[in-house]
């Protein structure tokens, strides 16, 4: 008898990492113009001149991080080969949730000589961190490109973007040269900067548009070839993932995720090939996941009201009026051992919120001879998703 895993043989995946978030493609497709713009912004680096500052804009998943990495790797290779070029140092930093102090501190730590103690977390100021940063830059000399990814999440972007580009002009550094590359998902980021910063930056601006289905198909084909075994995917599955992502978001990340999830589903079903249907199922699964997150974000009583409507939907008693929903809500609350809200008004408020958030449908009905009107509600989603999430949260509570 074999062991537990002995029947696991070939899988659809040849190299699954190629479809994972950290994978860096060695070839950038469908971004020739943007790569050219980047290239011309950094030409000066090869001749020991000051680098330009660059701001990159574009929605999530359109290749900002991947293209930046590719271009700077190429620049690094070229400067390493050319004797006339100064040494190039690239510092990458993701600013998500950072303050200027923690961003500069991380940059400093990346520059300190091996074996030296890292810059303290507490007790020193942002100005101290900057001073240390500058002295490390001058110790090394050469050209330094500081990539601030997701810079729209940096709390004090204004100050950092005012400081760094002017470091040389202000005699903070002498031997080194510095260029800043800011990457933002948000097109309005620049307008949020102060006039003084906008003026000081003098940056080149590169914007990335979303991908269309054809571009996504090219990117996906390239990935699929590397990630999946031969004959384990159909061209139409690739086309479908590209079409869905093209329509939804124009994001290569979404397209790649759909392909990976579709392949996982095919593999989980012991099927030899990724087909259109698997991509469809992958998309459903993602949508469901998002819906679950949205339900989880609701307050307890909003969830109980939602569950009541789902329960009525389940037994075919929707659309329903708030009074009927309230009765079911009491039963749901009792089942979950929660103290119910007592006024009809509070239930109506939750129903109205749930309608606004897109969980429910609402219809206005007239009261007939008496005049006046009332609302009827219906569930605008699969009730099973509601039950699943509510059961799960209930179990978590019980622990
Ligand atoms: N032009 C492209 N060619 C190949 N892969 C790409 C391209 N654009 C994006 N990708 C891939 O899509 C995913 C998302 O790209 P990323 O650069 O992280 O997007 P962003 O930084 O704009 O949110 C990554 O896996 C990346 O490798
Ligand atoms: Mg990115």
UniProtKB/TrEMBL annotation:
Q: What family does this chain come from, according to its entry? A: Belongs to the CDC6/cdc18 family.
What is the name listed in the Swiss-Prot or TrEMBL entry for this protein? Answer: ORC1-type DNA replication protein
Q: Name one Pfam family in it.
A: Cdc6_lid
Q: Which GO terms describe its biological process?
A: DNA replication
An annotated Gene Ontology molecular function: ATP binding
Q: Which SMART domains match?
A: AAA (SM00382), Cdc6_C (SM01074)
- Please state every residue range assigned to the domain named AAA+ ATPase: 50-204
Q: Which HAMAP family match?
A: ORC1_type_DNA_replic_protein
Its biological purpose is as follows:
Involved in regulation of DNA replication.
- Which key words are in the record? ATP-binding, DNA replication, Nucleotide-binding
Domain Cdc6 C-terminal span(s) in chain numbering: 306-390
């Amino acid at each position: 008898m074999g062991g537990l895993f002995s029947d696991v043989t070939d899988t659809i995946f040849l190299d699954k990492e190629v479809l994972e978030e950290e994978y860096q493609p060695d070839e950038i497709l469908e971004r020739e113009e943007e790569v050219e713009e980047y290239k011309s912004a950094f030409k000066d680096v090869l001749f020991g001149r000051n680098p330009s500052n660059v701001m990159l804009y574009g929605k999530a998943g359109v290749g900002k991080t991947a293209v930046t990495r590719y271009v700077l790797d190429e620049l690094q290779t070229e400067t390493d080969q050319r004797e006339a070029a100064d040494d190039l140092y690239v510092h990458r930093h993701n600013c998500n949730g950072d303050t200027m102090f923690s961003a500069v501190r991380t940059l400093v730590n990346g520059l300190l000589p091996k074996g030296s103690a890292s810059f303290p977390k507490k007790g020193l100021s942002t100005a101290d961190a900057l001073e240390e940063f500058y002295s490390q830059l001058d110790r090394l000399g050469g050209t330094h490109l500081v990539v601030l990814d997701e810079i729209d999440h940096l709390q004090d972007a204004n100050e950092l973007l005012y400081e760094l580009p002017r470091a040389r002009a202000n005699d903070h550094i002498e031997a080194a040269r510095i260029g800043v590359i800011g990457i933002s998902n948000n097109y309005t980021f620049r307008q949020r900067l102060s006039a003084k910063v906008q003026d000081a930056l003098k940056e080149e601006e590169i914007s990335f548009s979303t991908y269309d289905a054809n571009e996504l198909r090219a990117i996906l084909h390239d990935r699929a070839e590397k990630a999946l075994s031969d004959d384990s995917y159909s061209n139409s599955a690739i086309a479908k993932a590209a079409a869905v992502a093209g329509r939804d978001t124009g994001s290569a990340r979404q397209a790649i995720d759909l392909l990976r999830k579709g392949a996982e589903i095919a593999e989980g079903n012991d099927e030899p090939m990724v087909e259109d249907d698997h991509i469809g199922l992958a998309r459903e699964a993602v949508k469901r996941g998002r819906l679950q997150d949205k339900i989880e974000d609701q307050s307890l009583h909003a969830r109980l009201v939602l569950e009541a409507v789902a329960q009525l939907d389940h037994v075919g008693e929707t659309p329903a009026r708030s009074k009927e929903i309230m009765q079911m809500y009491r039963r749901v609350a009792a089942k979950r051992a929660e103290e119910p809200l007592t006024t009809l008004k509070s239930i109506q408020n939750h129903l109205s919120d749930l309608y606004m958030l897109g969980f429910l449908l609402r219809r206005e009905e007239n009261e007939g001879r008496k005049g006046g009107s009332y609302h009827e509600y219906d569930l605008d989603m699969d009730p099973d998703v509601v039950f699943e999430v509510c059961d799960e949260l209930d179990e978590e509570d019980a622990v």
